Every structure is written in structure tokens, then in C-alpha cells.
Amino acid sequence: MGGKQDGDEACGESQGKPAKYDPSFRGPIKNRSCTDIICCIFFLAFILGYIVVGIVAWVYGDPRQVLYPRNSTGAYCGVGANKDKPYLLYFNIFSCILATNIITVAENGLQCPTSQPVIQSLQQELCPSFLLPSAPALGRCLPLLNSTLPELPGISSNTSISQGISGVLDSLNARDITVKIFEDVAQSWYWILVALAVALVLSLLFILLLRLVAGPLVLVLILGVLGVLAYGIYHCWEEYRVLRDKGASITQLGVTTNLSAYRNVQETWLAAVIVLAVLEGTLLLLLIFLRQRIRIAIALLKEASKAVGQMMSTLFYPLVTFVLLLICIVYWAMTALYLATSGQPQYVLWAPNASLPGCEKVQMNTSCNPMSQPMNSSCPGLRCVFQSYSSTGLVQRSLFNLQIYGILGLFWTLNWVLALGQCVLAGAFASFYWAFQKPQDIPTFPLSSSFIRTLRYHTGSLAFGALILSLVQIARVILEYIDNKLRGAQNPVARCIMCCFKCCLWCLEKFIKFLNRNAYIMIAIYGKNFCVSAKNAFMLLMRNIVRVVVLDKVTDLLLLFGKLLVVGGVGVLSFFFFTGRIRGLGRDFENPSLNYYWLPIMISILGAYVIASGFFSVFGMCVDTLFLCFLEDLERNDGSPDRPYYMPTSLLKILGKKNEAFPGDKKKKNK
User: Highest mean pLDDT: which of 203-212, 291-300, 411-420, 578-587?
Assistant: First the structure.
């Protein structure tokens, strides 16, 4: 029974030695020890430091600096004594509106006079002798664009003023749109939840029904791909024939940078016919020679559907992952915000025109206290204005390093949470496969047992894999930043080198994700450290590389169809409902009075995609886990009474294998 059968993969020393039979192995090992202890200690120490950074940021930071506007005296509007005064009023907005840019507004706010005695303001020409209709924008009173602006001295046209106001409004005033968005969400939230519930039901039904329709569905999808390619060949041939009869050739066109012009020459369509025909023929040959492995992939998909049906709680584990990811992101965002506002505001003396008489004795840009009154009246327009936040002090000097620490903490914690979810699900699904009598031998609480086991023994291994992936992702972010800064460079060699580096890092990230995913499965089953698990998983997959490729592509095709089905179905239903094209639901909902009818549609589509991705990610993890267990089962066992196969009878029939009867126990068989 242990000989090479049809469909088995060839293996050599370069792919490692096949797994040996272990009489004590009965699925995920219960008696295991902690792995990668050094990395675990390092990770816990890093998390402790991350918490310390958050505490320091909370102690020294003041997010009110970005949440509330501040006047010239340094007082916050809408807070404390000014609780009933939420809006910031500029006494002369034209003194700063023309020089304003978005970056300055974002960093330091509009540096205009906001608090002066009325008589003094009039004497120094700080308070305009006219009033303009204004509207609040992020707590600031800004003139309306349709206001009639008076003629101002020194300004030949009011166009520049209108442009300045328009720029400020574009950068600050999102209030009206935000209010409308909230109104639409408040009016349609119930029906959005209904759409998300439909997405949940569709995703669940699709996964559970795969045990019945996986084979026909895969066949329909494959025939659909072949049909699309066949139609493409037909269409391209018709275009080629028409252009050939017209005599349109590339020799008449020559070389041109207008790529659309090549659509009108026969050689373009002839090349398309050849490429599509090669793809069609290659796919047909693969289907003929790999039909056995496609049957194995379909059987594994059916078995994965059964596993999910036996452990329905696994479908909702992504909610735990989502909550943990949300905590990590919110903690990082709040820490970064508090760190960015950790300095104290600094004020300096400033005047609109320092060359006027009376200003020559004033040392401009020197520190001042905005609360001290009055200012030097001999210098027109002299006032104490906000300049920046102080950069002195240990926290401020280390601000950049602390922000880098926070970014590393964000990537590491996010990847660790994702790794935790993969390892927990792998442990639960592995317990399903290695249960000889299903469902009798399946543990009572497989998901919770796997969760506790993973946290207790393998925190360090998950941190190790997450750290490797985080470093690669940070390197990609740095490279993207450099590429963005050098985008204006016209050196083609430098751009080519940068593109190659980005491509290499992208491939490296994909490979590490693939390796980590399978390493976590081996960790969940055998309880070994990260490096050993990654090596064993990689060698096992290399010994079965053809099966890996076939299963991966069949699964991707099936899950892609599932996502399109769920997201497309919810999107179409949402469109017809929110545009009032579904009648019979009541007068209030036949024509919803929404400001933006596309908003609830997009929310429904996005939510459906998130739900479908969460459900199908569980199913994909189940397929990968069962596949590795299936490969281990083939190498460890031979179907004898002492070494029976754990795979289902459908896979045994496909492989031409069977379990020999147990002496004196006719009831034992694969379920």
C-alpha cells in the first residue's frame, strides 16, 4: 500500500525526506512546550516599551491643539471659559488670507489677529471697517464666496482674495458634506444593516453548499474561462480578417507613440489571436493531464466545507481579529497624535510692516506673552502671534525616534494579530482532519482550545514571523516614500532601478506571507519553533508542488467567484432599493430622500466585501490546513491497520487507496 500511486508526486533529497510514521501522533500535539522564547521575551519587552511610549505621549501631549482653534492669546475656543464661544473670529482675515497655504493651515493654523481692544484695533487698522457674511468651517469664521467684497487699498482686484478664501474653504470646510453624509447614514443605516445581513447569509450559504456543488461549480467556472478565451479568439480573428481585407498593415503606420493607433492594423489582432490560442491550448492540455489533481482539489474543497459546517464558530473568529486590529490601529493613532502635540506653543512679536516708523526699535521674532497687554502702540499692527510648538525637552528631541518606534509597533502588532488568527484557525481545522471518527473524535471546543494553546506556547513564534514580515513591509514603505520624492527626476536608469527594487520587495513580501502562513499551520499541528516549522512546511510543499499549484488556483478561482457573487448581488440589490426602483416596501422607502444615494450603496458594497473576505479567509485557511494534513497523511500512513489513512473516503477513491479492515473491529472506517 505504500508504493507510488497515480497522482503521487516525485520527491528527492533536495526537497527533504518524507515524514516518518509516528504511532503516538493523533493530530495537534497536546503536550508541547514554549517555542522561540527569546523572541517572545523580546516581543513582550517591545510591547511594554510601546505602552511606555503611549504613557509619555499622554502625559506630554495635548490633542486640543489640533481639535480646537486657538486665538492670539493662546486660549482655546469652545473649551473651558470659552465653552459658549466655539468659533474663532479673525479681525482682519485679509492680512493672512493671501499668504495662506494648506500646509501652513494644517501645521500652525491661520496666523491672523483675533483678540485686540476695539479702539486699539481701529487705530492700528487691525479691525476692518466692514463686515462680511461668514460661515463656520472647523470652528473658524470664514467669509462666504458669494459675498460682495469691498475695494481694498493695495489690492487691484478682489480675484486674489476670492481665490485665497476658496483655498482656505477647500482645505478646511468639510462640514456641509460631512453633515449630509451623516444625515444619509442616519436615514439609511437600518437598510444598510439589512444589506450586510444579506451578504453574511450569502457568504455562509456559499461555503456550506460547496460540499454539494463544488464539483459542478468548478467545472462551470473552468468552462467559462475556456468560453471567454474562445470568444476572444473569435473576436480577434474577425477584427484581423476585416483589417486584412482593407489592407491595413503596420508597415503603413510605422512607429508611433499613439498606442491606440495600433488597434487599426491587422498585425495587432493577429498577435492577439496567437496569444489567446496558445493560452487556450495550454489550458486544455493542463486540464487533460492534471484532471486527477483537480479532482483532489475539489474533494478537499468539499471536505473544507464539511469542516466549517462542523465548527461554525470559526466563521465568526474574524470578528475577534477585527477587534484586535482596531485596537492596534486606534492605539497607534492616538499615540502618534499625542506625540505630535507634545510641545508647548511659542509666541513671537510680529508686525505687518516692520519698516514703518516706530517699529525700528522693536526686535521682531522675539518671544512674547500673548496675555500681556497692551502692546507697543508706536509700532502699527504689532502683536504677539503663534509661531510653532517648542522642540526643547527630552520628549521633543526624541519625537522622531518615538514616532518610528510607534510605526514599528503598528506593523508588528498588526502582523502578530493576523498570525494569531491563522494559527488558531489552523489548530482547529487540523483537529477536524486528524479525528478518525468524525464527528465523535472532534474536540468539544476546538477553536477555544487552539486559541489558548497558541497564546500559551507560541507567542514567540508568531512574533518571529510577524517581525520578519514587518521589516519587509517597512522597507517597502520607505522605498515608496523615496520613489515619491524622486518622481520628478527624469533619469530613466534611476527609475528602472527603483522599479526593480519595488518589484523585488513585493515578491519577497508575497513569499514571506506564503511561508509564514504554512509555518503557522505546522506550528499549530506539531508545536515546533518557527524556523523548523517553516522548513518542514516548505519542503512538504516542494515535494508536492504540482498539487500545490492546482489547489491554489482552483481555490482562488472558486473564492473569486464567491466574492463576485456576494458583492455583486448585494450591490445590485442596494442600487435598485436606494434608487427607489424596488416597489412595494412602503411609501417612505420607494423614493428615499437621500443627499447622495450612492453613499449607502457604496457602504453596502464595501461592507459586503469585508464580510465575504472574512468568511472566505476562514475557508481558505481551512483548505490550506486540510491540504497540509492530507500531504502529511499520505507520507505517514499506508492504510494498514496500524497506519490507517485519516483522509475521507472520497480522496481514498480518487487516489486508488483504501484502509485495510481492522481485525475484530468492522465498525472502524473513515467517515
Answer: 411-420
- Rounded to an integer, the average pLDDT of 386-390 is 67
Instruction: Please tell me whether the peptide bond between 28 and the residue prior to it is cis, using omega within 30 degrees of 0.
Output: no
Buried b (16+ CB within 10 A) or exposed e, 154-176: eeeebeebbebbebbbebbbeee
Q: What CA–CA distance (Å, rounded) separates 578 from 184?
A: 11
Q: Which pTM does this prediction carry? A: 0.75
One DSSP character per residue, 171-184 reads HH--HHHHHHHHHH
What string of DSSP letters covers 399-460? Answer: HHHHHHHHHHHHHHHHHHHHHHHHHHHHHHHHHHHT-SSTTTTS-SSHHHHHHHHHHHH-HH
pLDDT the model gives residue 555: 83
- Indicate the residue type of 664: G
29-45: burial string, b at 16+ Cβ within 10 Å, e else: beeeeebbeebbeebee
Distinct helix (H) and strand (E) counts, the chain: 21, 4
Q: By the 8 A CB rule, do 204 and 315 touch?
A: yes
Which grid coordinates are listed for 555?
481555490
Q: How many CB atoms lie within 10 A of CB 280?
A: 17
Check residue 407 and give its pLDDT. 93
Tell me the three cell numbers of residue 374.
497692551
Long-range contacts from 83-87, C-beta under 8 angstroms, 24+ separation: 86/136, 86/139, 87/136, 87/139, 87/140, 87/141
